[in-house]
Amino acid sequence: MSVAIETLDGLMRRVTLTLDPAAIEAEVNKRLVKVAKSVRMDGFRPGKAPMSAVAQRHGPELRSEVFGTALQEGFFDAVQAAEVRVAGYPDFAPAEGGDGHTFTATFETFPTIVSGDVSQIKVTRPQVTLSDADVDRTIEVLRKQRLSYQTAERAAQGGDRVHVDYHGTIDGEPFTGGEAKDFPVVLGEGRTLADFENALLGVSAGESKTFDVAFPADYFAQELAGKTATFTATVKSVHAPHLPELDAAFAETLGVSDGIEKLRAEIGANLGREIERRIHARVKEQVMTGLLAVTPFEVPTALVDEECQEMLKKAREDMKQRGMREQDISLTPEHFAAQARRRVSLGLLLVEIAKQNDITADADRVRAKVDDFAKSYEDPAEVVAWYYADASRLAEVEALALEDTLVDWILGRAQVTDEAQTAEQLMGAN
């Protein structure tokens, strides 16, 4: 076989492969002889069919197999001899104007990556001190999540939940969705239109009220958008919000049986871990973005396409597990193109930096990562054993540990500014 390799645009390459017709036919005949020894054909004993009949039935399939094998072997021999790193899979096609034995294989190569000047990367690193107020704020959130309502013998106020029967009309005519029985509305929550909620303030159980509600121009039901409806609502009951007492019983509902102080300690520990996680994630994101900015390179489209397909597959599986039907999922690979390109780019870049600078994740860092994952489980030792029992599971942790090691290596060379923040600011609170 003769081979020629040419450079196309960017990372694209093309190999021209010319097969030896005599060698192809010799291999086809060899396989036909082997098949003829055991083939079963009507009118002949096993292995006694004439070669012409065997060739007529099995020849095209065997010739296709021989061609495919020869092309694959020729391609990989060619790129190996040329020391070309192939990204993705080659696209084989008959050569234009060929004689039936000449083919081209078009493919992408991995880019040559020269790491940029990491000292130009700028990183702002949050510095957060956890306070008692942060713990108190979290406890209040937990209390509100366990809010209950109790019947109130008074007029409705903001925050109350009222149950109403209502019917509405537009220009004197009823409309779809304009009527309901025993409909719950939490006043001030904003789940219904403000005009509707505000009209119920000050109304007691058993009272009725007629009022107008203006639907906004961008209302989701287009047939109602921009119109004004007249509602008549009868309040059936008023319920006042009630927060659980901050006591041992409340702690028990959160799985803590040793009282409020133990609950506060556990919340503080959890917040501390979350703060560390968010600081690490924010710093890492800045490092990765900066790294891509100082090291531009072309990314193989084949690898991006593969990543898009993998992300699409995982997203579809996740959505189906959440109850969506297959026919209702309209995602396409293009939805993940930008994220996939970033992932592939970072993967190639980090591997290259690690190789060029002899950076590895040591066993202690891997174990620390596993221990950190195991902290939130009831039996951490069992989780640790689970990771170390399977090389593929541990390899995922090793990859994350290597990323952390690389981030630390870059931080030691980047322009890092520490910035004091509150826990609320870090968590993204308004």
Question: Which terms would index this structure?
Answer:
4-stranded antiparallel β-sheet, 430 residues, Alpha-Beta Plaits, 12 helices, alpha+beta, extended, Chitinase A, domain 3
Structure description:
- There is one protein chain.
- This protein is an alpha+beta fold and 430 residues long.
- It folds into 3 domains: 2-109, 2-Layer Sandwich (Alpha-Beta Plaits); 148-242, Chitinase A, domain 3; 276-427, Trigger factor, C-terminal domain (Trigger factor, domain 2, Orthogonal Bundle), CATH 1.10.3120.
- Helix content is 46%, strand content 22%.
- The strands form 3 sheets. Strands 6, 7, 8, 9 and 10 form a 5-stranded antiparallel sheet that branches. A 4-stranded antiparallel sheet has the order 1-2-4-3, sandwiched between helices. A two-stranded parallel sheet has the order 5-11.
- Helix 3 crosses helix 6 (260-294) and helix 9 (363-374) packs across helix 11 (391-411).
- It is extended.
- The mean pLDDT is 91.
Topology:
Elements: E1 2-7, E2 12-18, H1 21-36, H2 51-81, E3 86-94, E4 102-109, E5 122-128, H3 132-145, E6 148-151, E7 161-170, E8 173-186, H4 194-200, E9 208-214, E10 228-242, H5 248-253, H6 260-294, H7 301-321, H8 337-356, H9 363-374, H10 380-388, H11 391-411, E11 415-421, H12 423-427
Parallel strand pairs: 5-11
Antiparallel strand pairs: 1-2, 2-4, 3-4, 6-10, 7-8, 7-10, 9-10
Helix pairs in contact: 1-2, 3-6, 7-8, 9-10, 9-11
